[in-house]
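Lab manual, section 2.4: Encoding a predicted structure.

Procedure: take the sequence of the chain (329 residues), apply the prediction step described in section 2.3, and record the output as structure tokens. A sample record is shown.
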Amino acid sequence: MGLHYLVWASILIISFFSMLQADGATRSALSACSSCGFYALIVYGNISFLYPRFYQEKKFVPYLLGAVALLILAGLGRGYLSLYIRNASFAAAPHWLDPWTHVTFLLSVTTVFILSFIFRLAMAYFELKQQSEKILLQRSQFELRLLKAQVQPHFLFNTLNAIYYEAYMEAPQTALLIERLSDIMRYFIDQSTKEYVLLTTEIQFLDNYIALEKMRIKPEPEIIFHRSVDDQRKIPPMLLMTFVENIFKHGIDKISGNNKILLSLYEKDQHLVFQTRNLLNKHADPRQGHGLGLNNLRQRLMILYGKDFDMQATEDNQYFTASLKFPLT
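Recorded output:
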């Protein structure tokens, strides 16, 4: 903000001194202030209102119409205000604006508008660059934390495999759970650091996680998982996990045992849609909220997709519902 003030002060001073010799101090000061005021209207009207609301949303016709209206308002406003100041304070006889003067004022504000548009494009470029650097930094930090957590992973997998074969002879169900746990850990180490993973890999990860969670809940919750997708498509890893984890963390009623979970995964208009619905946990601790995991997911989606995603979470008297929609690659 301090830089903005410095720039406008510089423009004001330059305008004042450029007119000082011909118009005198008072008239030059008034003209410089009025010009800067209308220039500021154009610049901030474009970069703070028209550009984000219309141009960024690809509404080019409303953006063009808004730009024309802004230019006419600013150009004619600047012209007639200058005329009023001149006639009211400095002219011996009234003056009027001729057609060429109208054109001159409109051309001057159009030039300012074009410069403001170029400036806003530059701002968008640097914001995108900063966002990309933030993604790279977060990815590096995530990979570093993961590397720190990978303490002899092959030893751990070999141990789990040995336990699996021992358990398979005596307790096949336990052996199956050990296998699922091994698959989950392998996913964290081999897949979660990648930029994209196959959808079939992500779905298998969810299936394994759900199976392990069901094991510790008695009676087992009723879980229905509908899926209608091309499982060879790719998505960033761990995007679907937050909704499922949120259900088992906050939505399981261990007192009544009445738990029903509906999951739905499908494609629509080149987007992946993931919806979850579970009965409200009437005995949940009111001090625990649903917000942290969902807020972190929203921030990650904004980094990955900007505004090209939709994420909602609602609840009524009976159900908690969450939905996520983002582009497929």
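Check your result against the sample. Strands lie at 197-198, 222-228, 234-235, 260-268, 271-279, 310-315, 319-327.
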